Amino acid sequence: YADWCGPCRQLSPRIEEIAKQYAGKIVVYKVDTDKEKLLSQSMGIRSLPTILFIPVKGQPQAAMGALPKESLVKAINEVLLVK
Q1: What radius of gyration, in Å, describes the C-alpha atoms of the chain?
Q2: Where residue 82 falls among pLDDT bands split at 50, 70, 90?
Q3: Whose CA is closest to 75, among 14, 30, 3?
Q4: CA 77 distance to own-chain centroid
Q5: Contact 5/30 with Cβ under 8 angstroms?
Q6: What angle do CA 76, 23, 29 make, to 5 degrees?
Q7: Mapping DSSP to helix (H, G, I), strand (E, B) and coil, where does residue 76 land?
Q8: What 3-state DSSP class applies to 63?
Q9: Which pTM was predicted?
Q10: Apex CA 24: angle with CA 55 and CA 69, to 5°?
């Protein structure tokens, strides 16, 4: 995210809600791309907002844009909580 990014600000409350809802099941990080330029580059972040889903096993997947909560929950269940 970045402070100047309107869609990032719209998405922020959804991300915080999901972090509470899935506490103890997934880890949620919010990274300021202006402050963490090297990390952003190494993760291939080219547009904001970008959400990376990084499972313990398997390939990371990215979603871009201010997604609705339902889309985020679906991705969490399909990518991160798969057994």
Answers
A1: 12
A2: confident
A3: 14
A4: 14
A5: no
A6: 70
A7: helix
A8: strand
A9: 0.86
A10: 70
